[in-house]
Amino acid sequence: MEYKLELIGFTLEGCQLAQALGANRIELCDNPVEGGTTPSYGFIKAARSLLNIELYPIIRPRGGDFLYNDAEFEIMKSDVQLCKKLGCDGIVIGLLHSDGTIDKEKTQVLVELAYPMGVTFHRAFDRVADPNKSLEDIIDLGCERILTSGLQATAAAGIQLIESLIKQADNRIIIMPGSGVRADNIIEIANKTGAKEFHSSARIFQQSKMNYLNPLLKEQLTAASVDVPEIKNMIAHLKSL
Question: Is 202 exposed, middle or buried (0-12, 13-18, 19+ CB in 10 A)?
Answer without folding.
Answer: buried
